[in-house]
Description:
This protein is α/β, with parallel strands linked by helices. The protein contains 10 helices and 9 strands.
Amino acid sequence: xxxxxxxxxxxxxxxxxxxxxxxxxxxxxxxxxxxxxxxxxxxxxxxxxxxxxxxxxxxxxxxxxxxxxxxxxxxxxxxxxxxxxxxxxxxxxxxxxxxxxxxxxxxxxxxxxxxxxxxxxxxxxxxxxxxxxxxxxxxxxxxxxxxxxxxxxxxxxxxxxxxxxxxxxxxxxxxxxxxxxxxxxxxxxxxxxxxxxxxxxxxxxxxxxxxxxxxxxxxxxxxxxxxxxxxxxxxxxxxxxxxxxxxxxxxxxxxxxxxxxxxxxxxxxxxxxxxxxxxxxxxxxxxxxxxxxxxxxxxxxxxxxxxxxxxxxxxxxxxxxxxxxxxx
Length: 328
Ligand code: UDP
Ligand code: MG
């Protein structure tokens, strides 16, 4: 059977949100009047999410659950969903209801009417996000645009619709640690956008601590630009020039008979040069690390089961609904 739409939802410890999500997403999807699937990617949740998903699935046949063996992260979970989604169009949507599901209908209508491959959801109002999140997000998007010159929309997150052609293009990329919100615009496929109001998280807490946000930023920058490598070169050059000037100054001072400056200046110079070197080595390391990861070619996620096809291997546990043990 051909499916018109797949909605990919990454889920990580969202047991409180899932029933609310189902209650809001299902009417929207049913009202489309076309065959669809909602593909929940359980990103190795350690709470009751798998059990809640199986319970929801009993009443909602269009709900399909793919569980990853371990927590792979937001972007990898979405990638897993994209690799398995069957729809002609695929929408990616966070589970926490910050992105209103009602917009899915609008995205699909725009995609059909304007015959575009991608429809971005653009946040018109982020007042429900914390001030820190807003400021850091804005700086993040500006930085990426400046560094990489991609056509990424400011304030477009991971709420977007993609055509089958776009999804296949993304799936075919060999790149690891891909940050989809920049990878998709970089494809340059015809696109449109719809705006929506970003809402408050419906329940539970954000799964993006600062460390993960920093990780995402580094992956975004190193995935799109070698500007930091050049910055390292420039820093090195500037440091070298400063050292030459200092040397000249020291020689002149000595010839003029001044006493040798105290250790303060020496310490400052050593510290500054050391810092520049460490920074440059660190930048190099980021890229070497990326290349290393690509050469290893390790998958970024492992699937444990797919409710469509069953457990990944015969030795795997049955789906949680059939085995109460899995809820422990
Ligand atoms: N998520 C995930 N794996 C993770 C972290 C988050 O699948 O390791 C999911 C999470 O369940 C949610 C979405 O990614 O559906 C976005 O996460 P969250 O709402 O916590 O991020 P924020 O909106 O605070 O940036
Ligand atoms: Mg959220």
